[in-house]
Amino acid sequence: MKTIAVLLAALLLAAGCGNKSSTEKTATNEAEVTLMGESTTAGELPSFLKEGLSEKEQDELKKKIMPTLDDGLTPEQRFLNLRKKAEAGDAEAQNGLGSMYFSGEAVSHDAQGNPLSKDPEAAAGWFYRAAEQGHADAQFNLGLLYFTGEGVPQDKTKAVELFTKAAEQGNIDAQNNLGVIYLLGEGVEQNTNKAVEWFEKAAEQGNEEAIKNLEAVRASQKASQKPSGEQK
């Protein structure tokens, strides 16, 4: 069981399966397709685990799945321990440290010494170190930064490469992202069949976003196959 959970809010992209203009991407039959944009960090439950739970119930769940949070260490001590492991080459620690820099849990300063609310450049550096070791979550996180252009120059082609590496290792958010990317043709040639393939892989693992995306794609395909006189 992972001891780190999601950090970033999801990016929502509306997409149709048919033609789209260069300035606007609209949803076919009002179907919305979701691109997950979440990197990982310690101390927070994923949004899908929070649903329907009170704060007390969330705290109890944290104790069950995040036992390292009960280690008695201060945030500063935990950060120093994590950095020590990261500097020694531990990919899991490198990914966690990158997440702390991205979220602002690790305090950084600019050239003038002013504190930064978050440090995506430092985050990208740590994600890169872990990604180079084949760490799937770090590959996903670094891919997200390349997709959005945070901490690194925006490069959607590079993002696709990283998402693919993570997805091939079973990272379900990367699989869902690739589905959306192929559906929209962002950084790749638009390919609905590949989009469906990646959505199916994530959906088979129970990813709710991928399941909804599959439903949206199939609804659009079904509607496009109807004779024009039958469409409402």
UniProtKB/TrEMBL annotation:
The keyword Transport does not apply. Residues 1-20 form the signal peptide. InterPro entries: Sel1-like (IPR006597), Sel1_AlgK (IPR050767), TPR-like_helical_dom_sf (IPR011990). The keyword Protease does not apply. Keywords: Signal. Pfam families: Sel1. This is Sel1 repeat family protein.
